[in-house]
Write a structure and sequence with these properties.
With 381 residues, the chain is an alpha/beta fold. It is built from 18 helices and seven strands.
């Protein structure tokens, strides 16, 4: 464990607040503090400076901050603890599958936590409704934005909602989605997505069948001409990159040049990046390598369902034809809130974590013959 935990106490902060300040996932910060495991996608020294700046700003002493990244000493007789924090365990909770016995016992016509089937089934908070409208605006008018959120926060659901909106409303928008299988931010861990690959994806969508030029200058001129001709025919173009936290910094910098492809006053290409919290860290305005990108890219973060938990649960169970009160009472809902917020120390009230906990609780209740979820049952799974 790092002395950073003591430095947080000195600054009067908790881990969740620091994670938000750094645009890091709570689980990643917990691994850093508890096990000295630094995010591989970020430069360690840059992250150290960011942490130190936050601690000093919040009132931690320079002496404490100066030792924050040292390993805290343990008595020689005390073994190093390898136990994960409560937050780690929740974030890494195994995918749960609702059993047939649970569906029958609780009379669930469908799994309430199965993927949504249409835009009408998407649950929207005021914040996620803004993200949805911002995505549509980027598609129509060539905006540049990054949607950031924890695993299971609903990023892919909003992407699918955008694609369905384009299709069902016959919007003249071509969506360009480069393949990101095996993508990493360096060629040691996997394959990097380069600007040449993005150019190939654009041509394959906008002008399929046309062979790409060999030289980089000719290839990008070809891309510009293809986008311009398509735009003058009444089409719009949107580049969507999922798992964008795996983009290398050089490719992020090159995205600015794609975004600046124009026809008069009109942007020819909107860009949407979708990724986990490490993406926001890469797009930090204090990182000089991506400053020009940050000045053009709006970063929006999907927040946990802290204030919308009851409405979300009611929405989900209604999809299965059951009212929430038939399955959970108020005490059970509050138990779920306590479990996924650590009593206020953090919040992982994201759809995936909620689904996994409640699915496990429903399965356990069916096995024990308990007709309704209780607070004790939820806290015990």
């Amino acid at each position: 464990m790092l002395k950073l935990k003591a430095a947080l106490k000195d600054a009067g902060m908790n881990q969740a607040t620091l994670a938000r300040e750094l645009a890091l996932s709570p689980a990643a910060l917990a691994q850093l503090i508890n096990h000295d495991q630094w995010p591989k996608s970020l430069e360690q020294e840059t992250l150290k400076r960011s942490i130190a700046n936050v601690l000093l700003r919040e009132g931690a002493s320079k002496a404490v901050v100066g030792t924050a990244f040292e390993v805290a000493g343990l008595p020689e007789t005390a073994p190093q603890s390898t136990a994960m924090s409560e937050e780690d365990e929740i974030m890494l909770l195994r995918k749960q599958q609702l059993t047939q016995e649970a569906r029958q016992m609780f009379n669930l016509a469908r799994d309430p936590f199965a993927p949504v089937r249409s835009a009408q089934e998407v649950f929207l908070t005021p914040a996620s409704r803004y993200v949805r409208e911002a995505l549509r605006d980027a598609a129509r008018h060539g905006g540049f934005m990054a949607v950031v959120g924890e695993s299971g926060a609903g990023k892919s659901t909003l992407r699918r909602d955008l694609i369905e909106w384009i299709s069902t409303n016959n919007q003249p928008i071509s969506v360009i989605e480069p393949y990101v299988l095996g993508m990493e931010d360096n060629d040691i861990k996997g394959k990097t997505l380069k600007s040449s690959h993005i150019a190939e994806a654009i041509m394959a969508t906008v002008a399929p069948g046309i062979a790409l030029k060999r030289s980089p200058e000719a290839r990008f001129r070809q891309v510009h001409n293809a986008l311009r001709e398509s735009h003058r025919s009444g089409n719009r173009h949107l580049l969507v990159i999922e798992e964008a936290h795996g983009l290398p910094i050089p490719t992020l910098k090159h995205l600015k040049r794609f975004f600046e492809l124009e026809d008069g006053f009109q942007n020819l290409l909107g860009i949407v990046l979708i990724g986990q919290s490490e993406l926001a860290q890469k797009l930090d305005e204090r990182n000089p390598g991506v400053r020009e990108v940050v000045q053009r890219c709006e970063v929006v973060r999907l927040q946990p369902l802290d204030n919308d938990l009851e409405a979300y649960l009611a929405h989900r169970f209604n999809l299965s034809g059951r009212p929430l009160n038939d399955l959970m009472d108020d005490m059970a809902v509050e138990a779920l809130r306590r479990k996924l917020t650590g009593g206020g120390a953090f919040s992982v009230l994201y759809p995936l974590a909620i689904h996994n906990v409640l699915t496990a609780a429903l399965n356990e209740a069916a096995e024990l013959g308990i007709p309704k979820l209780t607070d004790e049952l939820i806290m015990g799974v």
